[in-house]
Amino acid sequence: MQHSSASLAALLTVFKAKETYSKLHQGLQRSSVQNLCRQVLHYQYQHQNQYEPVTSTCDAFINHRGVDTKRTVAGLLYDHLTRLHVHPFLDSKNLKPGDKLFQEIDSSIRNCKLGIAILSPRYSESYWCLHELSLLLEMNKKVIPIFWDVKPSELRVKDNGSYSAYDLRRFNWALEEAKYTVGFTFDSAKGDWSQFLKDISDAVMKILAEQKEGKEQNICYRVK
Questions:
Q1: pTM score, two decimals?
Q2: Is 132 in the active site?
Q3: Quick one: angle between helices 193-223 and 75-83, nearest 10?
Q4: Catalytic choice (19, 52, 125, 132)
Q5: Distances in whole angstroms, Cα of residue 186 to Cα of each of 45, 190, 197
Q6: What are the tens digits of pLDDT across the range 126-184?
Q7: For residue 35, how far is the Cα from the chain centroid?
Q8: Treating both helix axes as pointing N-terminal to C-terminal, what angle do 101-111 and 127-138 enclose, rounded to 10 degrees?
């Protein structure tokens, strides 16, 4: 009888342990699924096959928060640069049905000549915005920051618990770099849109001209 009671108690202990583990495992699954997706995405970016076809080179990669700027400054800037025979990249304009999102954006950043970061009120809430900015800077691309309806001091990485420690370090570093880079500020309610677009386009054209001149000089040195 004592043996049966001991066995029953042992079984109950095992059952409770399994039940506790199951609840804990489910909770961990729910809380870590976003972080796991982020890590998989980052792995894809860092270890992409070097022999796969790459997107054609673009002149300027427009990094932006769609909900804030896609229908205003991002779209207008894309159209304005295109009319000047500059080749910008804007996801809503360049990506086609069937394109692999991660691959195309990654390739475009790696092969662009410069980046334009439109830093808007909800910019730092987006994983994608912060990732693109980080990758641009990690690839040593020159980035022109545009502080659109926001002050640099108001920009902070907003972590909802889904970012890994690595992501947080990376994003905070990139955002600080952008905040302390000379760029443009614009108040969409009071600013001169025409002059604003001209000023940014002039800055882009100047950087592209300097890069072209630098490459030509390097070619001359090699020939000599």
A1: 0.75
A2: yes
A3: 50
A4: 132
A5: 32, 8, 10
A6: 999 999 999 999 999 999 999 999 999 999 998 878 899 999 999 999 999 999 999 99
A7: 16
A8: 30
